[in-house]
């Protein structure tokens, strides 16, 4: 089963657009990534630029409204993610526990939907859009 | 220590599954015996199941498990040495063990990759029958229990246990060194490793439609094992090849059975149901592997064939000329009558049924095919395309008599016009 480990770094909501992780943090994280890879569980990973360099699109009244970052009202923002393929929820959590994260960081562990998780009628609607699935 | 409240067995098992291959590999290097390493690692796991619910999961579970296993190993070796003094070699190991192992923290920092490779190559040694290799690999590298292995292979637990015991004993009796082979031997030994990975995958592949999730999950075990090997041996094209092959085959899982559970052949499948993220991974891996060699081996060739199907948006888009060429290469790299039948199908699609039929006719005295419905099925199909209806019907009738599958028999008899 696939899980996403969503990294929510402490203080990232207010980080300047040009903030980058330091060499030491990157080294620790690379070692961790290597471990995931050698265990055969790593499927994908990415890091995200700070939200101050991003934008939010909201849909109040079904009209898209664009707000440039940073977003004063949002406290927890994503800094990156891993997709892993493991045997159980417990194993995904155990991998998250092993992350060399900072003390204000949070990792949210979430299971990825598979098509078979949906009822038949939803699967039927989704058929024909197969190529879109990333 | 983590929260003490409720530490479930499933949590301990998760830690175990992550730590077990590394723990066994590390112990095997010192003990020079993967059987003993597996046993004392197992002892450590049992103690963890007893202690951790009460004491919490240690801050460094690897160090905890290593220390317990090491002490168990020392106990066992001391006992053996005392009982019969002739275990001199073990006594030497014992001294070394006591000298080198106390510093567990630094032992844990050592590069484990080489030990993991040694463990994989030893567990999958060709001196063992493939089924024993598979059981041992799932046990040592996948962390599966004997009961799980038994359920996965549809055998009684005692049979699975026996496979593991026999495998460990055979490795001990043959004095198989805990080493990563080099040169020509490495190629042969790697083939034995990959055979196990693909066997585990296929065992799950035939079961994915079945009710037992554990059997189906064998595909997941094989994929993880393959990906792990690919990370440890990034320069081996065949390792990348087997991973790509498994990913491309697995991408068709959602499409290969109909709503009533009936099998749907590749060319009849709804391709929009294929898992495109697996296809993308498979194709990416294949591209990487192709940069590593100009002479693809059997797994890479099979992955290349699977990729031809994956790339075709509709069956009519299939590059049958390329597939014919890859089967031709596969027939030379890993000759088998099944490969020849597949080549006949591909050649028939690429160059016309008469060309395909020529390959089929050359196989008619092949003893390994005489009880299989495959040859007459393909023969009937090619004859039908050539307009030789009577001969085609006779071939389908012959195939119907040979198949063990009721649904398939009905289909073949319908084509025979019966």
Main sheet characteristics of chain A: 4 strands, antiparallel
Task: Label the structural class of chain A.
Answer: alpha+beta
Would you list the SSEs of chain A in sequence order as H and E? EHEEEEHEH
Helix share bin of chain A: 10-25%
pLDDT < 50 runs, ≥5 residues of chain B: 1-5
Helix content of chain B: over 70%
Write the H/E string of chain B, N to C: HHHHHHHHHHHHHHHHHHHHH
User: What is the alpha-carbon Rg of chain B in Å?
Assistant: 25 Å
Q: How many H/I helices of chain B? A: 21
Number of helices of chain A: 3
How many strands appear in the DSSP assignment of chain B? 0
Q: Which oligomerization state do the chains in this entry correspond to?
A: heterodimer
Strand content of chain B: under 5%
What does this structure look like?
The complex is a heterodimer of chains A (134) and B (418). By secondary structure, chain A is an alpha+beta fold. The longest helix of chain A has 16 residues. Chain B is built from 21 helices and no strands. Chains A and B meet through helix 1 and helix 2 of A and helix 1, helix 12 and helix 14 of B.
């Amino acid at each position: 089963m696939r899980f996403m480990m969503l990294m929510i770094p402490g203080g990232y909501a207010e980080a300047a657009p040009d903030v980058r992780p330091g060499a030491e943090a990157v080294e620790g994280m690379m070692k961790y990534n290597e471990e995931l890879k050698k265990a055969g569980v790593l499927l994908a990973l990415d890091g995200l630029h700070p939200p101050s360099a991003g934008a939010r699109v909201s849909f109040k009244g079904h009209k898209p409204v664009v707000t440039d970052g940073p977003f004063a009202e949002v406290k927890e923002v994503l800094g990156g993610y891993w997709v892993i393929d493991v045997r159980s929820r417990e194993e995904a959590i155990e991998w998250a526990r092993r992350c060399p994260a900072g003390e204000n960081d949070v990792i949210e562990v979430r299971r990825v939907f598979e098509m078979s998780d949906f009822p038949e009628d939803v699967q039927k609607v989704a058929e024909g859009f197969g190529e879109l699935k990333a | 220590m983590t929260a003490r409240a409720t530490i479930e067995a499933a949590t301990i098992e998760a830690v175990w599954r992550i730590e077990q291959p590394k723990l066994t590999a590390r112990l095997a290097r010192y003990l020079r015996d993967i059987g003993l390493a597996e046993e004392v690692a197992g002892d450590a796991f049992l103690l963890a199941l007893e202690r951790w619910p009460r004491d919490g999961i240690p801050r460094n579970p690897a160090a905890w498990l290593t220390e317990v296993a090491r002490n168990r190993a020392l106990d066992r070796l001391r006992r053996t040495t005392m009982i019969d003094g002739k275990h001199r070699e073990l006594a030497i190991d014992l001294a070394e063990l006591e000298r080198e192992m106390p510093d567990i923290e630094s032992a844990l920092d050592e590069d484990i990759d080489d030990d993991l490779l040694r463990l994989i190559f030893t567990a999958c040694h060709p001196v063992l029958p493939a089924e024993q290799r598979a059981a041992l690999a799932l046990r040592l590298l996948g962390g599966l229990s004997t009961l799980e292995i038994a359920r996965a292979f549809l055998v009684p637990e005692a049979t699975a246990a026996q496979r593991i015991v026999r495998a460990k004993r055979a490795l001990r009796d043959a004095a198989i060194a805990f080493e990563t082979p080099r040169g020509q031997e490495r190629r042969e030994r790697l083939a034995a490793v990959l055979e196990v990975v693909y066997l585990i995958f296929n065992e799950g592949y035939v079961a994915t439609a079945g009710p037992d999730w554990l059997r189906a999950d064998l595909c997941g075990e094989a994929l993880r094992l393959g990906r792990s090997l690919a990370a440890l041996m990034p320069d081996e094209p065949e390792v990348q090849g087997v991973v790509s092959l498994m990913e491309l085959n697995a991408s068709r899982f959602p499409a290969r059975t109909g709503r009533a559970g009936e099998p749907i052949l590749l060319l009849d499948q709804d391709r929009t149901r294929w898992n495109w993220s697996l296809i993308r991974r498979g194709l990416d891996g294949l591209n990487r592997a192709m940069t590593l060699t100009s002479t693809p081996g059997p797994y890479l060739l099979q992955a290349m064939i699977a990729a031809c199907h994956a790339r075709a948006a509709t069956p009519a888009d299939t590059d049958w000329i390329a597939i014919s060429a890859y089967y031709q290469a596969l027939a030379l790299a890993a000759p088998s009558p099944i490969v020849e039948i597949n080549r006949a199908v591909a050649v028939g699609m690429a160059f016309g049924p008469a060309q395909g039929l020529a390959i089929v006719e050359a196989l008619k005295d092949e003893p390994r095919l005489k009880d299989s419905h495959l040859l007459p099925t393909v023969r009937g199909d090619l004859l039908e395309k050539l307009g030789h209806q009577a001969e085609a019907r006779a071939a389908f009738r012959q195939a119907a008599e040979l198949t063990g599958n009721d649904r398939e028999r009905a289909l073949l008899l319908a084509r025979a016009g019966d």
